[in-house]
């Protein structure tokens, strides 16, 4: 594994790299509250055939973490990854996204198809069906109420209190965290404790335009998201841990209308943290699909 510090659009970013420098690139985008090192288990299983690139996204780890919410709008997050792909040679690359990384990956694939050859998502959701389900006031709305809490002023301070006790509660809520060894937890806490990072991480939620309905109170006047601008033309693999309690399977309904070249594999016995829980199975599915 190699660690790199680069300038993207004039700002400092950090990424990890595994595999031969001339191999096909897998650009691996983490979500909340992870960082580049979250891809280690999967990258080690794929780096014989692929050049695995895992950046700390804006606000995370050793990358740029501006304090203002306006610096975390989707266009800027996607722009960081466009700049990174160009730094790596211009693409097209295969993009792998999880959680918030999936949101960036979907928009990156839709808006910059010349840079994304294939798209792989692990327990992440396309913004259009996700907004539909969060607005219904049903099960996904109930599961997403934590988003409203994270958007409150000062939530980053409460997440960090007591050696990140509240953040660990969110991380493990109704999920299997048995993969989190003491060494991994120490590494996560090192990244979370970097100045300004907790605010940067939470600002992803504050900057998102997606709305969350109160349970039982659907939102009926949402502006329509641009379907054509968010259509995914590439071959798309979705790997889904069926035990996810943060992102529910209703969010997959209609995805094939937005990604017509879609393959879905469901893995029982895994939840939102599928890449940690089932790295062998996930790596095998990625290998088979890319071959």
Poorly predicted runs are none
CATH level-two architecture: 3-Layer(aba) Sandwich
SSE run: EEEHEHEHEHHHHHHEHEHH
Strand element count: 8
Radius of gyration from the alpha-carbon trace, in angstroms: 18 Å
Give the percentage of residues in beta strands.
Answer: 15-25%
CATH fold name: Rossmann fold
CATH class label:
Alpha Beta
Give the overall silhouette: globular
- What is the assigned CATH homologous superfamily? Alpha/Beta hydrolase fold, catalytic domain
The major sheet is characterized as: 8 strands, mixed
Percent in helix: 25-40%
Structural class assignment: alpha/beta
Total discrete domains: 1
Number of helices: 12
Provide the spatial order of strands within the biggest beta sheet: 1-2-4-3-5-6-7-8
Q: Span between N and C termini?
A: 24 Å
Verbal overview:
The protein has 291 residues and is an alpha/beta fold. The protein has a single domain (2-290), classed as Alpha/Beta hydrolase fold, catalytic domain (Rossmann fold), CATH 3.40.50.1820. Helices cover 39% and strands 17% of the residues. The protein contains twelve helices and eight strands. It has helices at 40-46, 74-88, 100-111, 127-134, 139-143, 145-151, 155-172, 182-192, 197-207, 255-258, 274-277, 279-290; strands spanning 2-8, 11-18, 25-29, 51-55, 93-98, 116-122, 236-241, 262-267. It starts with a strand and ends with a helix. The mean pLDDT is 97.
């Amino acid at each position: 594994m190699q660690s790199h510090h680069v300038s993207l659009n004039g700002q400092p970013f950090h990424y990890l790299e595994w595999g031969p420098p001339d191999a096909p690139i897998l650009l691996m985008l983490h979500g909340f509250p992870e960082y580049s090192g979250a891809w280690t288990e999967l990258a080690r299983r794929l780096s014989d055939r692929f050049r695995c690139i895992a950046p700390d996204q804006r606000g995370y780890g050793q990358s740029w973490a501006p304090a203002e919410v306006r610096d975390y709008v989707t266009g800027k997050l996607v722009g960081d990854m466009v700049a990174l792909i160009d730094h790596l040679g211009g693409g097209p690359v295969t993009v792998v996204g999880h959680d918030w990384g999936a949101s960036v990956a979907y928009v990156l694939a839709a808006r910059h198809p010349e840079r994304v050859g294939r798209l792989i998502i692990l327990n992440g959701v396309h913004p259009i069906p996700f907004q539909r389900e969060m607005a219904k006031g049903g099960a996904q709305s109930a599961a997403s109420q934590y988003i409203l809490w994270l958007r409150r002023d000062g939530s980053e301070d409460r997440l960090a209190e007591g050696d990140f006790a509240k953040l660990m509660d969110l991380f493990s809520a109704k999920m299997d965290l048995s993969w989190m060894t003491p060494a991994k937890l120490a590494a996560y806490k090192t990244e979370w404790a970097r100045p300004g990072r907790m605010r940067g991480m939470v600002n992803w939620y504050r900057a998102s335009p997606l709305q969350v309905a109160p349970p039982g109170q659907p939102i009926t006047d949402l502006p329509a998201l641009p379907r054509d601008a968010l259509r995914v033309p590439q071959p798309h693999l979705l790997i889904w841990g069926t035990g996810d309690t943060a992102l529910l399977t209703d969010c997959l309904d209609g995805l094939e209308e937005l990604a017509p070249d879609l393959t879905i594999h469901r893995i029982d016995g895994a939840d939102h943290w599928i890449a940690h829980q089932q790295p062998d199975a996930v790596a095998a599915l990625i290998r088979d699909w890319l071959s």
